[in-house]
Structure formats: structure tokens, C-alpha cells
Specification:
Rossmann fold, 16% strand, 415 residues, seven-stranded parallel β-sheet, 49% helix, single chain, alpha/beta
Length: 415
């Protein structure tokens, strides 16, 4: 398997530049990594000393890293924090503005052996932390050769993953490189035990810490608050086309509600099409007019959604009918019930099933189910109970970041 992996990477590094000539996304993927090592060298020249390297795949994993980054920076203010992304969809919005506690944001080079060796050699991390699942063989080997303590946080394993398959020995070896694995749930501990991996502990999901922090200090939007003016409001987060096919007739049938819609992708054509189909007054946030009393507000930018849930009576989170359900914990952090499309791959989103067991999350598969669910949430007693259960579930799961930090700082100081 090592030879196959090596061949695939070597072929990729030669084929991708050719494909980039014809495929803009691939060209962008490669262009963004130009000058990566020079940037790292310049940073380390001006920022010597202890450094913790976090690696995340994209935005979702970065959200899980944020509580640990904040806690670590508070405890070790003299230590630099570097975050690497693999995906442009994570790197680009994050790198546009300062990130609290983070000293450098970079791309991860492709996992070619020589590039991985150079990346780790230049970065010289004191410790390395991978988030959830984005593991790369040669980067892990480079860390191991330099005896850099390496951890996996917010891990969530399923029996159908490659680690537990008949061909999974290569992938399992990457888990064995970890000094410690922090899991989101107890089921993951049991799966690791089947692989004879015992250097692991169930610390919980750091997203609960993140959403609670956001709910405690949300961004303020005075214009939106004035527009709502106490009227019942529904926030639709990360909406896909499949979600809107159910939501549009619901919106049309509920003129007593205001609707804030944040699409999954900032696509003006899609928003214009949805507005035309709705046939009711709408406006986009980028073209806000105080005098325009619309029933629907489209959020055509990135960065507002997690704080917009403060205005919601209840929320709908999209993606369940498509590639993957988005973060249902964000609205739950504000103590409000959440509706979502029944995920196609339910095992990938255990929080969806758990939220239903807790009584604060509601999965729907059709318009009739969506309508029935909304009707229930309009009943005061049902709503009050669901909202209380949301708040209780979040509060009961706080503290994952502190538990991880206690282990990280203790293990480093004991070496």
C-alpha cells in the first residue's frame, strides 16, 4: 500500500499541473500553494520559539479547533499558533481577516514525501494537532522522525471507514502515529479498541464549546433587529436547492413569519430564482434598504450565519438532502429547536440522531413532514419543552476543549 500511495502522489504532482490548464479549480488549488515554503520560512525567522501546528481540512474542522486554540493561547500566550488548511473553501474566507489566537494561516502542501519533510522541517512545531479525520501519511512520518508529539482531536469513527476494513492496515498505521486520540463519543473508543489502540479518551465534541461561546457573544446586527421588531422569525442556514424545494411552499403558507435565508453558496442567480418563485417581498443583505419591509432576507455574504440564529424562533439547517448536513449545533447553542433534512448518510452525522433523541432536533423527508413539524413548534408547550431540551443538551456537553487542553499541556510539560 505504501508503494501504491507513493505512486499516486507522484503521478498527481505531475498530472495536476496539466489538468490545471483546462480546469480552473485545479489551477487555483495549485496556484495558491505557490510560495508556500517561502512564507513559512519568513514567518519562522520572525517568530522563533514554541509553536503548535493545527491541521484542518476545511471550515467545519476549523470550527472544532477554535475552542482548543483559544484555550491553548490563553494558557501558553508565548507559543505561536499555525493553522493549515487543505481546502480552499476553508482557507480563503479564514485568511481574509485576523483569527483570534492564530498567528499564521497556510495551506498544507500535497503529501509528497519531500514536501512533507520540508514543511515540518521549516515549521519546527513543538506539537501538532490534527482535527477529526484529515490525516496525511508523509506529514505524519516527518513528525514522527522529529519526535514531535502528535494528537488527533474531535475524532469520530464509524465501522464503515477505511480504518476498519480489510484493506485498512495502511490507514490504521496513521492512527498509530498519534500520541493520543481525543474522541467525540464513546463508540469511537470501542472501535479504536478493536484495532488495539488504547491511547485514546472520550472528551466530547468541541463544537458545543464553540456554539456556546458564539451564543454568549454573538455579533450585533442593529438593522436586522430593527427589521424584525419582535416578529417571529425563522433562520434557514446553509440552504441547498433540495432544501428550498420544501421550504418555498412553507414560506408562502406562513405570512406571519419573517425568514432569514443564508444559502450554502453565495449564488445570486439561485437567490434571484428563489425570490421569483416565492412571489413575496424579499431583499438581499448587500442591498439593504430600511424602508423596504420584506418578508424574506437573503444573506449574500459569509460570516454572519452563526450569529443570526440569535433572532430565530426556530431554525432549519440545510444539506441533509445533499452532500452533507451542516452544523445543527449552531442554532441549538442559542437554545432553539432545529429542523433539518433527513441525512442520506446518517452515520456521518451522529449529532442529528442524538438531537432527535434529546427532543430538540427534528428530521424531515417531505413537505408534509416539514409542515407537521412546524405546526408542532407553533404550539407553545411543545416549543417551550424543545427549546429547554436544546439548552440542556448543549450545557451538558460543554468542557471538551478544557479536557483536551489539560492532557496536551500535561503531556508536553512531562516530556
Amino acid at each position: 500500500m505504501n508503494v501504491v500511495y507513493w505512486l499516486l502522489l507522484e503521478l498527481s504532482t505531475r498530472i495536476l499541473p496539466v489538468l490545471g490548464i483546462f480546469v480552473p479549480k485545479i489551477r487555483h488549488f495549485l496556484d495558491q500553494r505557490t510560495g508556500l515554503f517561502s512564507t513559512l520560512t519568513d514567518f519562522r525567522t520572525t517568530h522563533p520559539g514554541p509553536l503548535t501546528w493545527f491541521h484542518v481540512a476545511s471550515l467545519g474542522e476549523y470550527e472544532q479547533a477554535k475552542p482548543v486554540i483559544a484555550a491553548l493561547k490563553a494558557k501558553e500566550p508565548q507559543s505561536w499558533i499555525v493553522v493549515s488548511f487543505f481546502s480552499p473553501s476553508g482557507y480563503e474566507p479564514t485568511s481574509r481577516k485576523p483569527q483570534p489566537g492564530v498567528d499564521l494561516i497556510t495551506y498544507l502542501p500535497l503529501d509528497r514525501n519531500s514536501w512533507a519533510e520540508r514543511f515540518v522541517a521549516v515549521l519546527q512545531p513543538t506539537r501538532s494537532i490534527f482535527v477529526k479525520y484529515d490525516l496525511w501519511h508523509h506529514h505524519l512520518q516527518a513528525l514522527k522522525r522529529r519526535h514531535v508529539p502528535t494528537y488527533l482531536i474531535a475524532a469520530s469513527f464509524r465501522p464503515d471507514q477505511s480504518y476498519f476494513s480489510w484493506y485498512g492496515r495502511f490507514f490504521c498505521r496513521m492512527l498509530l502515529q498519534m500520541d493520543w486520540i481525543f474522541t467525540q463519543n464513546e463508540a469511537s473508543i470501542q472501535l479504536l479498541a478493536n484495532l488495539k489502540i488504547t491511547n485514546a479518551s472520550h472528551t466530547g465534541d468541541t463544537r458545543f464549546d464553540r456554539v456556546a461561546a458564539t451564543a454568549a457573544h454573538p455579533m450585533d446586527f442593529p438593522a436586522i433587529r430593527n427589521w424584525i421588531n419582535g416578529r417571529p422569525t425563522v433562520v434557514i442556514g446553509s440552504a441547498w436547492e433540495e432544501d428550498m424545494s420544501l421550504l418555498i411552499p412553507l414560506i408562502q403558507s406562513k405570512p406571519e413569519f419573517l425568514w432569514i435565508i443564508a444559502p450554502h453558496a453565495i449564488d445570486s442567480l439561485a437567490m434571484d430564482r428563489w425570490a421569483l418563485t416565492l412571489g413575496i417581498p424579499t431583499q438581499k443583505h448587500s442591498k439593504w434598504k430600511d424602508a423596504q419591509d420584506s418578508q424574506v432576507l437573503f444573506i449574500d455574504n459569509i460570516g454572519m450565519l452563526s450569529s443570526l440564529y440569535q433572532f430565530a424562533h426556530f431554525a432549519y439547517v440545510g444539506g441533509g438532502f445533499g452532500k452533507g448536513l451542516h452544523n445543527i449545533l449552531e442554532p441549538l447553542g442559542f437554545g432553539i429547536p432545529v429542523i433539518f433534512g433527513n441525512p442520506r448518510s446518517a452515520s456521518k452525522f451522529p449529532e442529528a440522531a442524538q438531537s432527535q433523541l434529546e427532543g430538540c432536533g427534528f428530521a424531515v423527508s417531505s413537505f408534509s413532514e416539514l409542515q407537521e413539524c412546524v405546526n408542532k413548534l407553533e404550539q407553545p408547550e411543545f416549543y417551550k419543552k424543545a427549546a429547554a431540551l436544546a439548552q440542556h443538551w448543549v450545557e451538558a456537553n460543554l468542557g471538551a476543549a478544557d479536557r483536551i487542553l489539560d492532557h496536551l499541556t500535561t503531556s508536553i510539560s512531562s516530556k
